Queue: 4 jobs
Job 1
Amino acid sequence: MAVGLAVTSGSGQYDGRITSFVILSCGIAAMGGLIFGYDIGISGGVTSMEPFLRKFFPKVYVKMKEDSKVSNYCKFDCQLLTSFTSSLYIAGLVASIFASPVTRYFGRKLSILVGGAAFLSGSALNGAASNIYMLLFGRILLGIGVGFANQSVPLYLSEMAPPRYRGAINNGFQLCVGIGVLAANFINFGTEKIEGGWGWRISLSLAAVPALILTIGSFFLPETPNSLIQRNNDHQKAKVVLQRIRGTTNVQVELDDLINASSISKTYRPQLVMAIAIPFFQQVTGINVISFYAPVLFRTLGLSESVALIMSALIAGVVGTVSTFISMLVVDKFGRRAMFIFGGVQMFVSQITVGGIMATQLGDHGSLAKGYAYSVLSMICIYVSGFAWSWGPLGWLVPSEIFPLEIRSAGQSIVVAVNFLFTFIVAQTFLAMLCHFKSGIFFFFGGWVAVMTVFVYLLLPETKMVPIELMDKVWKEHWFWKRIVEVDEKSKMGSA
């Protein structure tokens, strides 16, 4: 039964509504974001829990508790510890490459199923881990799950959504990431207090809950009309599905655009640049400094273990989730470019402020004065908010909507692979960078934020309310990309 908002035809729009069928299907698929966010929050929290460190990383525990000569910035500098976090992302990078042909030739829902099942297995193994090898192998399975889910879920959401509300629906993926981070941080705060030192097992095992929902729910998901046309050229079945998800029988115009998008050859250079640049920039915002290592960072500021965990929950979870929800409400009104730019300015100012405070007020030993510590926490809140309503959700939305159908799966795999590659690099090197750069780490990432904001201002065209099947026109109308597109089209005509 159809409910909700009408999507009228005209100006590139199609007839139809946001139906309950679309909401339910996209809600289940967006669990792929929940497992991603839960892992981000959990991994950062458990690596600050003393029982976890004692069992798997005893050298770090001894350095943190007993070595007073070690700098505040270097207490957690351990390659094995960072491997616990970063191993997921190198596994996700490899998995995303294999996910591309699965998504293209077997459909979006099978990739979602594989992602949920792999993540479910990894969470069970991590919760039962008795040695570092079980722990790392579990992380690899989690990475396979996240690799498949992140490759297929944003595509699924963009292809199921009506064009007018595609931004809001696709941003549901990042909203679920935020909810996952929020849940993980509060769970860490609770399990850290369990006597006996086994609370970390609960934290790691509970990742199975959203993974189970995603795995079971994927059996009931409909395949997208785009995928049906791409895989089987089944126009009639695609039309039936399109009528069901749009809540109207008047879908011929949209169906014709889908068919044309599947058969027409286009130039891809602008899209490929964005597929590499956007996920790269998303990772060098420095968000994973906060997401992975917020408890570690807050302990560097002199906060206790419990206070560090609750502050992580409030900042990374509550602030991030609320800001992403706001992004869902306004992204299709204000557009992608404006949100990228203003979010970038917000992140830049907050990072430079945090770096300045830590450079002048936090030495190698001791802690920040209470007033300065609260100022740092406030700036981190502003930073997380800026990311959560701009580069966080838009970093997944924009790449998922700019590619033509015939290479959409491959394009999304590039996005995920680049994302995971630089997530791995940042996760693997951050603690060493923190030790060597000290407060300069915030100036380092702040510089990248400035670069990416200028990049968006100059080179990213606006894509709001443009039907996904007609996206090629935004490149032909852009001041810079239109010259490249014209040259490529003339070259193809000359070689035909």
Job 2
Amino acid sequence: MCTLSIPVDIFTFSIAINCCCHSNRVDYAFSLLATTFKRGFVPDVVTYNTLIRGLLSQHKSAEARLFFANLIKFRQVQPNVVTFNTMIDGLCKTGHTDMAFWLFRYMEKSDCEPNTITYNTIINSLCKRGLVDDAFNLHSEMMEKCILPDVQTYSPIIQVLCNFNRGEEVSLLLKQMIDDMKISPDVHTFTILVDAYSKSGKLDDAKYIIQIMNERGVYPNIVTYSTLIHAYCSQGQMDGALAVLNTIKSKKIMPDCYTYTILIDAYCREQKLDIAMDLYRKMASEGLSPTVVTHNILLHGLCQLGKSMEALTFFYKIQGLGHKPDIVTYETLLGGLCKNHYVDKALSLFRTIECNGLIPESTTYNIIIRGCLRSKKYDAACKLVDKMVDCSFSSDAATTSVLRHLLLSKAQDPTLVALYQKCLH
């Protein structure tokens, strides 16, 4: 357009800047900003808001703060409520709630009235930090200033109150929300309540909440139903959990990986590996990709039943399918192999950890060292202790206990004495 002398204006540049920010090329966006100045255009507050949002979306919060501060310092533009809300949201998401609160108060002094979104952002951040009383105070302030709350105002407060088992206050807040403010809870609010009742073992109350949801025309989603399945599994009521799964499917709601993982974990805990494996295969048939957590649960279940070699075979199979293990995967397998006296296999597996781009942790070393000690592979244990110490890790109580027990039965063994001294050091 520029080459062909087709006229462009500040709106053209603003669209292009917005496009660059959405494409994660905020550097191009700032190049375009420089061009607007060269052409004599004056960017408006919308353009600056776009750039701030672009910086924050690329996790450049420090640059966003500096850019925002310079806008105010050099009075390049008068920030509006969107500008402040964008910055406050970015600060909250990066854990700078105190700074966000300061900006919130500065906003009031600069004759830019905070709106519901501003309050909701701060309240949500305070609730995530467990500062429920501060969130309550801000909610009260909001009401006094006649800034109407919405369902996003109430949900995080209800969530944190449920986390702290402050049931009476939850009831009062729900009453205020529904009866006084005429705000209907959404699926997220109801799911919070289902989760709270489920965790406290009140399964009937959790089911009643779902009944209320259906009566109000707020239909439960997969998260709501997964929460209920987890409640059934926690109480060992697997038939009830499977009934909920069938209900989900009858309503044409697709179970997700999390739903199946809950069930797989429950069956593994009950040592019903065949059913757990059937569910795992069902996941694949429904086009769901199991997560590393799902695999770790199955590996742990196999190891707990003494089927550590089957676990190792399963591990190599999922690796071949492109699933990447994490350090918990290795620790689960190492523990199972050592427990079932396959220490050589465990040592061989331990050597492959770093080849897969992972770094053994203190727990990893202690598991394999205990396996070596129990299998009387003292030289291997000694080398591993040296390596562990080089990594600035130390032996844990379980490893020290195994060594102490061995020393009591073999007090004259110099290798064990040296090992014990290294561990103590």
Job 3
Amino acid sequence: MATTNNNVVVVMIPLPAQGHLQPLLELARRILSSSNFTIPVHYVGSATHLRQAQSRAHGWDPLTTPNLHFSEFQMPTLDNIPPDTNDFYPSNLIPSFYAAMEFRQPVADLVKNLSATDKVKRVVVIHDILMSWVVQDVVAIPNTEMYFFHAVSALDVCSRILEAKLNVDPVTPPADVAEILQELASMEPGSDSPPPLMVKYVEKQMSCAVNYSGLNIFSTCKPIDGIYLDLMQQAFKSYDEHWKTWGLGLFMNPLEMEKNIRKDTTSTLPRHHLLQWLDKQEPNSVMLVSFGSAASFTDEQIRELALGLEQSQQKFIWILKEADRANVFADENINRTTFALPEGYEERVEGRGMVERGWAPQLEVLGHASTGGYLCHCGWNSVMESISMGVPIAAWPLHTDHPRTALLLTKGLKIGIYVRDCARRNELVKAETIHNAVKTLMDSPEGENLRQKAAELKDAVKASFMDGGATKKDIESFMSYITR
């Protein structure tokens, strides 16, 4: 039985966006369950974003988890701006990032109080790298240790570091990796850039980040990103003597995930209608279509996507919902179904396609035996879920880390194909293009080969969490380091 370790306390500071909130909350759970000691974890944020993270936790209840504490800080009231369908980037969320900079003093006060607590030897501060400005005062507080959290792939971070030409040790990557890095270096300027207001925000964070130690936690693991984790470690050997990298994701243990999504014949709760429909389909016959919590399309693009799916004659589940706003719980954000599909569309695809206009159990859908492909925006959390369930991806990257993730999927891991690349992100993707990509992934020898590779990667990820596996070793190494 675990005993309480009053010597170490963990504080987590996420960026207030779904793709950053959730993995850091799952890391909190990992820390709470991965030590012989019970280490208190303090997860901070505004009331709205704490509730958002709590409500979207999968397979566990953060509010009833012992030693997980939520520290609520005040954030300026934000207008609940709708997403701009002409802007792939979720610009409507940027004001909440700037508002979260108000956490600077409350975070410093919290860490200072914990540091001064009797018997506390170390306060481990794990902050999203995009919240580095908020923790700038924490560095000087006694007994604190700073850790960067990266909610993107190691390829993304590694390639940006090498492109920045920092004074790091020269590295010679394998030929196939060198080819990927060269392709990234030659990427069309601006093809993955956020809007100017976000660029300024990132620059502000990075100006502070250079002052912290190089202890890095990644939402990835060795079977997926190992070569890039190793390249960073090699490159920084002399640049930063404190540099360490840990690949601790998937933060939801894939063994547990698989167990949780199995059909529970003893449950009295009704099974979600999407899962009931999947139960009636052939193995690997259905494509999931979902663009995450932050992507919006024009009505014209929605119509082309609808027609492309219809023309492909493949079975599909399409999660069609508006992207998140700053407050996902605001009344006007509930049950909006404003997307215009072609007249009679749902009747025409009945029995072959399901259009879901709200919340859906995405992980369970991906884990169902009937799901054989995933058309998505290449957001890192969605990609990790798909990999954990052995489902290949039709990549439709939109912005920032998406193009690099798409390249990792298609050229590195070889478990994906492009719908279209990010350099053409401002072009309308026509129904024929979508139709061809869907047919290739779902009904071709190439698609079958991708499914086989995705299944092999899933098995490798699962094995890495077992005793002696690379991820298990990284978890043990990290826990040993913070409790040393």
Job 4
Amino acid sequence: MTDSRNIFVSLKIPFPSRREAEIAYDVLRIDNEPKRSFIEKTLKLQDNQLLVEFNGQHAKNVRVGVTSFFESLLLCCETLDQFGPATSEKYEFY
């Protein structure tokens, strides 16, 4: 018997400030899930929170997608901690 229901995971990740959440959002939204992962990932920004949704048919694929996302999120957070939050609202290096 095959179960056609999808597995849905929703995460709400708070950041100390809206600017830090924007930086994380801009960094993490670049990497789309590969087609062979068989999951869909959606990122949204709401005030100082990053909202992430995963949707897939197989628990293993969703688990791998969530684990991969958390690895990227940890790297992003460690980088923010190391270099501190952005001092301005604009990126003026170009």
